[in-house]
Amino acid sequence: MELSIKTINGKNAGKLTVSDAVFGLEPREDILARMVRYQLAKRQAGTHKAKTRNELTATGKKFVRQKGSGGARHGDKKAPQFRGGGKPFGPIARDHSHDLPKKIRALALKLALSSKVKSERLVIVDDASCDGKTKSLKTNLSDLGLSNVLFVDGQVVNEQFLLASRNIPNVDVLPIQGINVYDILRRDTLVLTKAAVEALEERFK
């Protein structure tokens, strides 16, 4: 499969042959949905916690006599019905992550890349670099027709490009090590540098 290469200014810079095994698959929504669910579950903190009755520090003394008070019979004030009492069946700290086979995770990334190619939402640029000015990068994005975009560079992201992109909404920049299905799908357009494409093909060789 041949894809066009553009410069960051939106000009044509030739063609690049990419692997059909990585960029030419038929998208499967079920695999992509499983992968997104896996990623979101893994990043969930799971630190929510409510104290139960036996975790509170309070006196256990019976605060009202058993009979004659005209009210209900109670033992101590750690009971759930009292203010400051323990919460029955409250949330507990736990790990929300679950397993997903490595082959499924690899396939999901290929499918996400292929879905961008099929919907014509994949742009390949020869290099992701700029002068570090946000205004200049906005102009470049306008030349490419991009507004909601994920840039994926090679092993090292250009520092000036990263600084220029930080103040532009709906623009994310990642090194190739950080590429993932969720970030690809949450942005309208995926922009890969030539270095990123070569790294991806080497990874799935």
Written description of the protein model:
The chain has 205 residues and is an alpha/beta fold. It has two domains: 2-44 and 98-203, Ribosomal Protein L4, Chain: A; 45-95, no CATH class. It is 34% helix and 14% strand. The protein has a six-stranded mixed sheet. A hairpin with a 5-residue loop joins strand 1 (2-6) and strand 2. The longest helix has 17 residues, at 102-118.
Instruction: Encode the helix/strand succession as letters.
Output: EEHHHEHEHEHEH
Measure the end-to-end span.
16 Å
Number of helices: 7
Shape: elongated
Number of strands: 6
> What is the CATH class of the largest domain?
Alpha Beta
Please name the CATH topology of the largest domain. Ribosomal Protein L4, Chain: A
Query: How helical, in percent, are the residues?
Result: 25-40%
What is the second-level CATH architecture of the largest domain?
3-Layer(aba) Sandwich
Radius of gyration: 27 Å
The low-pLDDT segments are: none
- Mean pLDDT over the full residue set: 91
- Approximately what portion of the residues adopt beta-strand conformation? 5-15%
Number of folding domains? 2
Placed side by side, the strands forming the largest sheet appear as 2-1-3-6-4-5
